[in-house]
Amino acid sequence: MSIARYLVLILISLLAGVAVAQSELPGVFQAAPRPLPSSIQYQAGISLELYFASLTQGGSGLLRLTGGDIQSARYIFRGEEQPFFSLGDGDWHALIAVDMDAPPRSYELSVLAQRGRATVSFARDLRIESAGYILQEFELPADRAYLVDGAVEAAEFATLAALTANVSPAPLWDGAGFELPLDSPLSSPFGSFRVLNGGRETRHTGWDQLAPVGTPIRAMAAGRVVFADRLEIRGNYALIDHGLGIYSGYAHFSDLFVGAGQPVFAGQIIGSSGNTGRSSGPHLHWEIVAGGRWVDGLAFLDLWLPA
Ligand SMILES: [Zn+2]
């Protein structure tokens, strides 16, 4: 190994340590009151509020429209159109979820609110910041080495993409909001680039937490189980629909205590952690999907969400 490569590896280990240490504090769901927006734009009696100062790769942020009999609204960002949703109180909300590999730079955000026959439109620049994701190298045991195969992972991503494509039209979460699925140290961060068995590179779609086999795992929020079965990479896996395109997934379980179609309450024990699938030791891997993409679940826990 060259000295340069050795130094790079030391630097990566140091950065990994820092990333995990900074994330030791669990996210706090801001149940109430609504926080102050970080910016407001006014247009024809309607205000557009942003609840984030900037967006990061893999990040998510909340938009809110208020005032003036809005009948529907949508936004366009990075070539994708997404609807706002209403809880019937006259406010309209939308979540922006950013790809973990979105190139960091400025993009235009357009917001279009429909009032009668008129369309009130907003435009502004939104910057996506680099998240500085780390590199991790893993060696899988020989009996699980076949799980490094890119085709196995592609098939599993396709299964999960099909499951999470359904957007339930209303929130299924409640005032209890979203919480961590267990109380234990975070052991591996979202978004990292992972080299498996010295070869193929993949991305980490969630967070890992230390958990001996058999640890009870809680549903992060109220919702409905849409999948509780075995997957190749995620092992025994539970996927919960929280409504509006937000899903939480829990991997490598030893036992599943819920079935597809079952409603769950926030904090309900849905299974016990384990070491099934593409795992190199007992732990819980959990992940959040919003708007059809993997987002940083820890940052997601810090969001204020209407309920
Ligand atoms: Zn993981």
The gross shape turns out to be globular
Q: Which structural class matches the secondary elements?
A: mainly beta
Overall pLDDT level: 89
The arrangement of helices and strands along the chain is: HEEEEEEEEEEEHEEEEEEEEEEEEEH
Total helical segments: 3
Report the CATH architecture of the largest domain.
Answer: Distorted Sandwich
Q: How many whole angstroms does the radius of gyration measure?
A: 20 Å
CATH superfamily of the largest domain: Glucose Permease (Domain IIA)
Q: What small molecules does this complex bind? A: zinc ion
Instruction: Kindly identify the CATH topology of the largest domain.
Output: Glucose Permease (Domain IIA)
Low-confidence stretches: 1-30
CATH top level class name of the largest domain: Mainly Beta
Query: In which range does the helix fraction lie?
Result: 10-25%
Beginning-to-end CA distance, first to last residue: 54 Å
Number of strands: 24
Q: How many domain units?
A: 2
Quick one: biggest sheet?
8 strands, antiparallel
Percent of sequence in beta strands: 35-45%
